[in-house]
Specification:
The structure is a single chain. The protein is of the alpha/beta class. The chain folds into two domains: 31-90 and 352-449, Alpha-Beta Complex (Aspartate Aminotransferase, domain 1), CATH 3.90.1150; 113-347, Aspartate Aminotransferase, domain 2, CATH 3.40.640. The chain has 13 helices and 18 strands. The longest helix is centred in the middle third of the chain and has 19 residues, at 213-231. The protein binds pyridoxal-5'-phosphate (PLP).
């Protein structure tokens, strides 16, 4: 236990509090409909929040702060399965003992948010465990950020300082890199940058094409060659998500990435892999390890499941003093949780061919395949604890109708992709076989309700 204020009494009380919180949270372990007398409370709160934000909520969801494992309680007393986990954040599940412990430990320290100017031990420890986890690559440094988008901005700044005056970035169709002014240039969805000027030039080539797997690599290489021909004096780097999340989980066999990365290395183009969503979710801690691409990566961003975010980079790319900075390194509880999460994942039986993540992938995919055989869904994709599929014609309206029916029936997930839209799961590791059975019953019943 890593404590600030530390005495026998504090340690004992923390242990008691830890057990009391966990036992209380464990009461929220099965789906339940709303309490009739609290339905208004949720409706009013959702209306108020919409007014305050000026933006509609996707789901009528406001958490009570209670939940356990894959379950989350709303303020109307209903309990639902959470298969999106705040968009990939709650990999370990709600009220995971490590999350509770991290917050209690952080409460004994003398501040809440840590800064970059006067670091704490939690920064040092998380840095250490992260850099140990990428041994076997050229990545030697890591800089914390408050969001995946800011980690992406850091990545681009580092790359540009090295390659100036070459600033153009190659990316892939369907890319999502976040919503900062920098990352919006890379993010391909036009609605996310409506009315926003581009601030740097991105050159887009096709990602893997499921409809033409044989020719995918050759087609992308042909486009890369064309770009090179025209722009060779201006290209800085290539940014890729090995598994595209927002695009509905698009990923390729290893040879596709290998071919592209070898092309880039031959031209002296730096490779930036965005693992903000894939971090910890494939059969290795990093998707670049899952695909055996360790030798190629120059910059890697991570976030979400780590409970904080940041950017790995090689010593060759280490920028001159002044480029990196910023007030916050992150909340102490998040940095403590980040270290505990990485340690837990690497020491437990999560990764590898026979690890829990691969077993969950196989279970989800085989259950989805059964639904496909019954004609209820199509075009299944699953890798690690990420899975998606299409319902009906994959129209936006039908997909959201189905998602809302899932929600009503006790299952929260989200969409990915566009034309067709897809149903997307970011599965928590706390899920059991019994949960999966119940979840698939909800999926099937809900689809029957809508189709
Ligand atoms: C691949 C990828 N990169 C970057 C981001 C941006 O992260 P954040 O929303 O924390 O800024 C996301 C978020 O969904 C993502 O999926």
């Amino acid at each position: 236990m890593e404590l600030g204020a530390n005495s026998k009494e504090i340690r004992e009380q923390i242990n008691e509090l830890f057990s009391a919180i966990l036992m209380e949270q464990q009461k929220f372990m099965q789906i339940k409909s709303a309490d009739p007398d609290k339905i208004d409370l949720l409706q009013r709160a959702v209306k108020d929040l919409k007014k305050f934000r000026g933006q509609e909520l996707i789901y009528p969801y406001i958490s009570s702060g209670r939940g356990h494992g894959p379950f989350t309680e709303l303020i109307d007393g209903s309990i639902k399965y959470d298969l999106i986990g705040a968009m990939g954040v709650n990999l370990l599940g709600h009220s995971h003992p490590l999350y509770i412990k991290s917050q209690l430990e952080a409460a004994t320290t003398d501040t809440m948010m840590l800064g970059n100017l006067l670091p704490y031990q939690s920064q040092l420890k998380l840095n250490q465990i992260l850099l140990d986890s990428v041994s076997g690559t050229k990545l030697e440094h890591f800089w914390f950020s408050g969001s995946g988008s800011m980690a992406g901005d850091t990545a681009i700044k580092i790359l540009w300082q090295k390659t100036a005056p070459k600033y153009k970035v190659i990316t892939f169709t369907g890319a999502f890199a976040g919503r900062s002014l920098g990352m919006l240039n890379i993010t391909q969805e036009p609605n996310y940058s409506e009315g926003i000027p581009k601030t740097f030039e991105v050159l887009t080539v096709p990602h893997y094409n499921y409809h033409d797997p044989q020719n995918s690599l050759a087609n992308t290489l042909r486009e890369l060659d064309k770009i090179w021909e025209k722009e060779k004096d201006d290209i800085s780097s290539l940014m890729i998500e090995l598994v595209q999340g927002e695009a509905g989980f698009i990923f390729a066999p290893r040879d596709f990435y290998k071919g592209i990365f070898e092309w880039a290395k031959e031209k002296g183009i730096y490779i930036f892999v965005d693992e903000v969503q894939t971090f910890a979710r494939t059969t290795q801690l990093y998707a670049f390890q899952h695909f055996g691409l360790e030798e190629y990566v120059d910059v890697v961003t991570i976030g979400k499941a780590l409970q904080t975010c940041g950017t790995f980079y090689t010593n060759e790319l280490n920028p001159r003093p002044g480029l990196l900075g910023g007030t916050f390194a992150g909340p102490n509880s998040s940095l403590i949780a980040g270290e505990k999460t990485v340690k837990y994942l690497l020491e437990g039986n999560f990764y590898g061919e026979n690890g829990r993540i691969h077993r969950l992938e196989k279970t989800f995919v085989s259950k989805l395949q059964k639904l496909e055989l019954k004609g209820k869904i199509s075009d299944i994709r699953g890798i690690g604890v990420m899975a998606s599929f299409q319902v009906g014609d994959g129209s936006h309206d039908l997909t959201f109708k189905v998602l809302n029916t899932f929600f009503k029936n006790g299952l929260i997930c989200f969409k990915g992709g566009k034309k067709p839209s897809r149903v997307r799961f970011l599965i928590p590791l706390s899920i059991t076989e019994a949960h999966i059975e119940e979840i698939f019953k909800i999926i099937e019943d809900s689809i029957d309700e809508e189709l």
